[in-house]
Write a structure and sequence with these properties.
This protein is α+β, with helices and mostly antiparallel strands and about 325 residues long. The chain folds into two domains: about 140 residues, 3-Layer(aba) Sandwich (Aminopeptidase), CATH 3.40.630.30; about 150 residues, 3-Layer(aba) Sandwich (Aminopeptidase). Helix content is about 25%, strand content about 35%. A hairpin with a 2-residue loop joins strand 11 and strand 12. It is globular.
Length: about 325
């Protein structure tokens, strides 16, 4: 079997990496902008570290790869490093040789004590990932809502902002201590990198601020599906349920003024009852083009059992752009 090597994003030969992705996925179509050195260089350099890329070559040609990029996760009030596996690809003529497994195992070998590797495999990859040792933390659900509201104006607490700052860091710390789930730490640095500095997609950011400081925020992205305007909610966080409800009502008001047909949000199950309460309807998974799961690998350290036993809370933005 060909040997697997791991390089960091500053050592990566982006042209061969991009060519492999075009070759591997051209049968399902590719977005040219998403397979550019500009996009991957941004994606592989998040605020807390640099991406690690596993590579397998046959006769000096790149034929298989997988990548992991680091984020800060909150786990019962504690911050740890979580690595998201992403951008796996294997050339058509090199499949069924165990290369995908070798790349993922090479990345797993780099995970340190009290860190975690997680990913969002589709229905085709879920079984393969389970065989390597990953456990499931829920299936990705899709919710839709037709924007309807009696709200006639913008509430004074909610405003549109262009960038995150110190207020967001204070809110992120408060949310970290308040939450009992595993979630990405929503610091200003992370959100600015992820949404404000994204080289491909444009987002709109709403903040909910009071005299005591930030109490919640939402991030949305405009899309088009079947000729219809859609708003996807990428991030939706609040210290109280009432704040989330007010943010959703505001997003509806904002959407109606722009002739949006549907509002979409995705999660891994924590909206099971709240989604209905907020007026969203679940889309049956069998009707979706792909069915993704949230999965993670047990790693050495005291945090491992906590990660397995604690609910994970992920939203659209945790995988939509990365």
């Amino acid at each position: 079997m060909a040997k697997c090597i791991v390089v960091d994003a500053d050592q990566l030969e982006y042209d061969s990496f991009i060519n492999l992705h075009f070759e591997a996925f051209n049968e399902i179509g590719t977005e040219t902008l998403l397979y550019s050195s500009k996009f991957f260089h941004w994606k592989f350099h998040p605020p807390v570290g640099i991406g690690q890329i596993a590579l397998i070559y046959e006769k000096n040609k790149l034929v298989s790869t997988n990548t992991m990029i680091p984020f800060e996760l909150c786990v019962n009030g504690r911050k740890i490093i979580g690595w998201q596996a992403t951008d796996a690809a294997t050339a058509k003529n090199s499949r069924r040789k165990g290369y995908s497994s070798s790349c993922l195992k090479a990345l797993l070998g780099l995970i340190k004590r009290d860190e975690v590797l997680f990913l969002f495999p589709n229905q085709n990859a879920k079984h393969f990932v389970s065989e390597i040792g990953a456990y499931s933390k829920g299936t990705i659900h899709t919710w839709l809502k037709i924007p309807l509201t009696r709200q006639n104006n913008s509430p004074p607490e909610i405003s549109t902002i262009s960038r995150f700052g110190l207020e967001q860091d204070r809110f992120a710390e408060a949310l970290r201590m308040h939450s009992s789930s595993v979630q990405v730490f929503c610091s200003a640095n992370y959100l600015n990198w992820c949404y404000v500095n994204n080289p491909i997609y444009k987002y709109v950011i709403f903040s909910f601020d009071s005299d005591e400081g930030r109490k919640g925020f939402a991030i949305i992205r405009s899309r088009e599906l079947l000729g219809k305007k859609i708003i996807s909610i990428e991030e939706l966080w609040g210290m109280e349920d009432q704040i989330i409800k007010k943010l959703i009502r505001f997003i509806q008001w904002w959407s109606i003024r722009r002739n949006v047909h549907w509002i979409l949000i995705q999660d891994n199950g924590h909206l099971t009852t709240a989604g209905l309460r907020y007026g969203f309807l679940p889309i049956p998974t069998r009707m979706l083009p792909t069915r993704n799961a949230v999965m993670a690998f047990l790693t050495p350290g005291n945090i491992s059992n906590t990660l397995r036993e604690t609910n994970w809370q992920v939203l659209t933005g945790n995988w939509d752009h990365i």
